[in-house]
C-alpha cells in the first residue's frame, strides 16, 4: 500500500508573515514525520525600466544581483522559521510561482505542499491567496493551506471532512487521517430534507474507509450548507484540520479563505490512491 506519510514537503514562500507561519507549521509537521523540507521562492525578477535602457549586459547583471539577494533572504527566512534539527534545502527559481511549484513537485517527487494564505478577500489577498488556490486546483499531491489565524504546532486531534462522495474527497480524508493516526474524524454531509437522514447516514458510513470507521462520527447539515457554516461548524468543534476534495465545487475555496484551522485539499487532478468501497453499516445520530 502507498505510504501517505510525507517524506519531502514543498513549502513555497513570498517572505510574508502568513508564509512564515506556514513554514513554521511545515517545520513542526516535518519534525514529527522525519520529513525533509524544500523551501521555494519563485519570481520573474523583472528589472526596473531604467536598467533596460542602459548598456548591454546591465540587465543580466541587475537580474543576477536580484536573484543573489533573494537566495540570501530565502536562507535567512528558512533558518528563522525552521526548527533546529529539521533538514531543509532552499531553492530560488526564475518563473511564475504556480508554474514553479508544479515543476518542483514533478522534478523532486515532493509528496505534500504546505502554503500560507492571507485569509482575506479582495485585492489585499491577490498575491499569496490566488497562487495558493491555483496550486490547489491542479496539484498532483495534497496541499495544506495554513491561515495565519491557525495554530502553528501542527498537532491534529480532530479532523472535519465535508463529504461529497468524490474520489478526491476520499483521498483527502485518507491523507488527513494518515497525518494524525489518533485523531477523531467528523464526516459532514448535506441533506435536502430531514427524512433523507435515514438513507444518508448508512450511505455515509458505508462510504468511509474500513480502517477509519471506528474513528468517524457522522453529522448531517441542511442542504447546500454554505462555506461559512462549515467553517463555523469546524470552529465549534475545535477542529485542527479540515479535509477537502476539490473536484469541481468552486464554493469550497471560501472554506480555505475563512477557516481558522489548516485545510488539506486533494484536487481532481491528483492520482487516486485507492477507491473507497461502500458497505452495509449501522445508523448514526444526525445533527
What can you see in these coordinates?
- It is a single chain.
- The chain is an alpha/beta fold and 287 residues long.
- The protein has 2 domains: 1-148, HUPs (Rossmann fold, 3-Layer(aba) Sandwich), CATH 3.40.50.620; 155-272, HUPs (Rossmann fold), CATH 3.40.50.620.
- The chain contains 9 helices and 10 strands.
- Strands 3-2-1-4-5-10-9-6-7-8 form a 10-stranded mixed sheet, with helices on both faces.
- α5 (126-138) links the parallel β4 and β5 (143-146).
- α4 packs parallel to α5 (126-138).
- It is elongated and about 70 Å long.
- It starts with 7 loop residues before the first strand and ends in a 20-residue tail after the last strand.
- Mean pLDDT is 84; it is low at 120-127 and 277-287.
Q: What labels describe this entry?
A:
287 residues, alpha/beta, Rossmann fold, 10-stranded mixed β-sheet, 38% helix, elongated, disordered C terminus
CATH homologous superfamily identity of the largest domain: HUPs
Beta-strand content bin: 15-25%
| Count of individual beta strands | 10
What kind of oligomer do you see? single chain
Q: Poorly predicted ranges (pLDDT <50, ≥5 residues)?
A: 120-127, 277-287
Please give the alpha-carbon distance between the first and last residues: 35 Å
**The CATH topology of the largest domain:** Rossmann fold
Instruction: Give the number of helices.
Output: 9
Radius of gyration: 21 Å
**What strand order characterises the main sheet?**
3-2-1-4-5-10-9-6-7-8
Largest sheet: 10 strands, mixed
Shape: elongated
Fraction of residues in H or I helices:
25-40%
Q: How many domains in all?
A: 2
Return the CATH architecture of the largest domain.
Answer: 3-Layer(aba) Sandwich
| CATH classification, class level of the largest domain | Alpha Beta
Calculate the mean pLDDT score and round it. 84
Secondary-structure-based class equals alpha/beta
Q: Give the SSE order as H and E letters.
A: EHEHHEHEHEEHEHEHEHE
Amino acid at each position: 500500500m502507498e505510504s501517505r506519510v510525507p517524506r519531502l514537503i514543498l513549502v513555497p514562500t513570498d517572505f510574508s508573515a502568513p508564509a512564515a507561519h506556514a513554514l513554521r507549521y511545515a517545520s513542526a509537521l516535518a519534525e514529527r514525520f522525519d520529513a525533509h523540507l524544500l523551501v521555494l521562492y519563485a519570481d520573474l525578477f523583472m528589472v526596473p525600466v531604467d536598467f533596460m535602457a542602459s548598456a548591454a549586459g546591465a540587465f543580466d547583471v541587475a537580474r543576477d544581483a536580484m536573484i543573489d539577494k533573494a537566495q540570501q533572504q530565502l536562507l535567512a527566512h528558512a533558518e528563522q522559521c525552521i526548527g533546529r534539527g529539521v533538514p531543509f534545502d532552499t531553492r530560488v527559481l526564475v518563473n511564475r510561482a504556480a508554474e514553479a511549484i508544479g515543476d518542483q513537485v514533478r522534478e523532486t517527487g515532493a509528496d505534500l505542499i504546505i502554503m500560507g494564505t492571507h485569509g482575506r478577500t479582495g485585492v489585499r489577498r491577490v498575491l499569496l491567496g490566488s497562487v495558493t488556490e491555483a496550486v490547489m486546483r491542479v496539484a498532483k499531491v495534497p496541499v495544506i493551506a495554513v491561515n495565519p489565524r491557525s495554530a502553528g504546532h501542527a498537532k491534529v486531534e480532530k479532523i472535519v471532512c465535508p463529504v461529497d462522495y468524490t474520489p478526491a474527497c476520499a483521498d483527502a480524508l485518507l491523507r488527513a487521517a494518515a497525518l494524525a493516526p489518533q485523531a477523531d474524524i467528523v464526516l459532514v454531509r448535506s441533506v435536502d430534507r430531514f427524512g433523507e437522514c435515514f438513507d444518508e447516514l448508512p450511505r455515509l458510513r458505508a462510504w468511509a474507509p474500513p480502517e477509519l470507521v471506528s474513528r468517524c462520527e457522522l453529522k448531517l447539515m441542511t442542504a447546500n450548507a454554505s462555506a461559512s457554516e462549515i467553517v463555523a461548524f469546524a470552529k465549534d468543534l475545535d477542529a485542527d484540520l479540515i479535509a477537502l476534495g476539490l473536484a469541481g465545487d468552486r464554493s469550497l475555496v471560501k472554506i480555505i479563505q475563512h477557516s481558522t484551522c489548516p485545510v488539506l485539499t486533494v484536487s481532481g487532478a491528483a492520482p487516486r490512491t485507492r477507491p473507497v468501497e461502500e458497505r452495509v453499516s449501522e445508523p448514526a445520530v444526525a445533527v
